[in-house]
Amino acid sequence: MNLTPDNLTAIALSMKIAVTATVISLPFGFATAWLMVFKPFRGKVLLEVLVNLPLTLPPVVIGYLLLLLLGRNGWLGGLLASVGIELVFTWKAAVIASSTVGFPLLVRSIRLGMESIDRQLLEASRSLGAPWYDTLVTVILPLSLRGMVAGSSLMFARSLGEFGATIIVAGNIPGLTQTIPLAIYDYASSPAGTSMALSLCLVSVALSVSVLFLHEVLAKKLEHGG
Q: What Gene3D superfamilies does the database record attribute to this sequence (predicted)?
């Protein structure tokens, strides 16, 4: 397997983006799932629709909407530009794109974990006078770990394979924003790049298998701990 320095950079950047997107999204995903499962409020259906919307929209549409939002003419992009922060066509934009696309998978997994919690445990915690935040930290959080691991694994793997939204909002700049899928796209469009595209495909498969294997190992350890 022959990998060029640009290929190695693309692999490292893909890992960096996937890890950053997952770490940043995890607390927001946990909070969103907690609201959906344990907090009755008006407009919950609307929240569920908004959270799951990226699953139904084409990634290119998501990327274009992010470009309108984060570009210099967008209200958020203009605001950030006024304080010297540029996001579009940087690796940070790729993180935002990956977070947006993978967030529904993260929330859904955590939510399933929370929904499986025995409500009698929560009632026992409340009957002992524990405030809501104590119940959250000592009961809900530990019993949601399997869902969090599953959601994080899915989001990480989804971020590694993100293409449509990333190429719109971050571009395909070798060494700066080019990830594994974008590099494969470049090689696939050239007859001479078949072997390099295949090499990166094998790397992508190896990374995905490693993530799934790690997920299974962690899930079994958590099940044993439970």
A: MetI-like
Rounded Cα distance between 123 and 155, Å, is: 32
- Determine the angle formed by the axes of helices 59-70 and 91-115, rounding to 10 degrees: 120
Residue type, 116: S
Query: What's the CATH number where 65 sits?
Result: 1.10.3720.10
- What radius of gyration, in Å, describes the C-alpha atoms of the chain? 20
**Does the reported pTM lie above 0.70?**
yes
pLDDT digits (tens, 9 = 90+) for 80-138: 888 888 899 999 999 999 999 999 999 999 999 899 888 888 888 888 888 878 888 88
Gap between the Cα atoms of 10 and 19, Å rounded: 14
- CB of 89 within 8 A of CB of 177? yes
Look-up of token digits 């298998």: 209
Note the pLDDT tens digit of each residue in 14-37: 999 999 999 999 999 999 999 999
Cα 111 from Cα 108, distance rounded (Å): 5
State the total domains in the chain. 1
| 36-61 confidence digits (pLDDT tens) | 998 888 888 999 999 999 999 999 99
Q: 147 Cβ partners below 8 Å, 6+ apart?
A: 33, 109, 110, 111, 112, 113, 114
| Range of the structural domain that residue 169 is part of | 5-225
